[in-house]
Amino acid sequence: SQKIEQNSEALNIQEGKTATLTCNYTNYSPAYLQWYRQDPGRGPVFLLLIRENEKEKRKERLKVTFDTTLKQSLFHITASQPADSATYLCALPGLTGTASKLTFGTGTRLQVTL
Amino acid sequence: GAVVSQHPSWVICKSGTSVKIECRSLDFQATTMFWYRQFPKQSLMLMATSNEGSKATYEQGVEKDKFLINHASLTLSTLTVTSAHPEDSSFYICSARPPGYSPLHFGNGTRLTVT
């Protein structure tokens, strides 16, 4: 069956280091993949979208890679700050039948400490 | 930027009563809106797709008679949880996509607690 997997354990890193989060998917070939940030008690906020023909996408301190062979996306935050502490979700289209619907991973909680 | 507003942000109701949650797109028209539900430490689960001027499309396992969706205008969708039970307590989030190629924009969610 098709599914999305993110490391459910929290990732704790020190301020200034690079945080790397992983999103794996199985039995599926998405046309693109998205990353969202969710703070406690709030709705997700879109961060980046990467298409299947793109290897890497950057936005300020954020970098996303997309390996369609490994069926994996990596999300990097460089020079991390305590304000980056949040849950990060990856999302793929079409798992529920239509491309307009997004299916989300369980998310990985990032905690950046001083 | 595109803004999706959700109201109320939290609500407490008694078992057996109904609760209505509103989702508005403030600066764009949305023919389609999506309703998600999120339990603690779990991911967002798509409940239904709200279609302006027509019936909503529900995901498998979601009771359409319990979760009534109305999308009466291009900027407003409502979700009514009917005859609420404690197990309906959850975080409900709506989303919409502005016209053109654009990611989903989410409301800030509604925390529903049924006592």
Tell me what the structure shows.
The complex is a heterodimer of chains A (114) and B (115). The mean pLDDT of chain A is 92. Helices cover 0% and strands 55% of the residues of chain A. In chain A, 32% of the residues are buried. Chain A is an all-beta fold and 114 residues long. With 115 residues, chain B is an all-beta fold. Chain B is globular. In chain B, 0% of the residues lie in helices and 51% in strands. Classes of the chains: A mainly beta (114), B mainly beta (115). Chains A and B meet through strand 5 and strand 10 of A and strand 5, strand 9 and strand 10 of B.
Quick rundown:
The complex is a heterodimer of chains A (114) and B (115). Chain A has 114 residues and is an all-beta fold.
Anisotropy-based shape of chain B: globular
**Average pLDDT over all residues of chain B:** 93
**Beta-sheet strand percentage of chain B?**
over 45%
Structural class of chain A: mainly beta
Computed over alpha carbons, the radius of gyration of chain B is: 13 Å
Instruction: Count the DSSP helices of chain A.
Output: 0
What oligomeric state best describes the polypeptide chains here?
A: heterodimer
What composes the largest sheet of chain B? Answer: 7 strands, mixed
Counting DSSP E segments of at least 2 residues, the number of strands of chain A comes to 11
Low-confidence stretches of chain A: none
With helices defined by DSSP (H or I, 4 residues minimum), what is the helix count of chain B? 0
Largest interface pair: A-B, 19 and 23 residues
Tell me roughly what share of residues is in helical segments of chain B.
under 10%
CA(first)-CA(last) distance of chain B: 37 Å
Class based on secondary structure composition and strand pairing of chain B: mainly beta
Approximately what portion of the residues of chain A adopt beta-strand conformation? over 45%
Order of helices and strands of chain B: EEEEEEEEEEE
Largest sheet of chain A: 6 strands, mixed
Q: Unreliable segments of chain B (pLDDT under 50, ≥5 consecutive)?
A: none
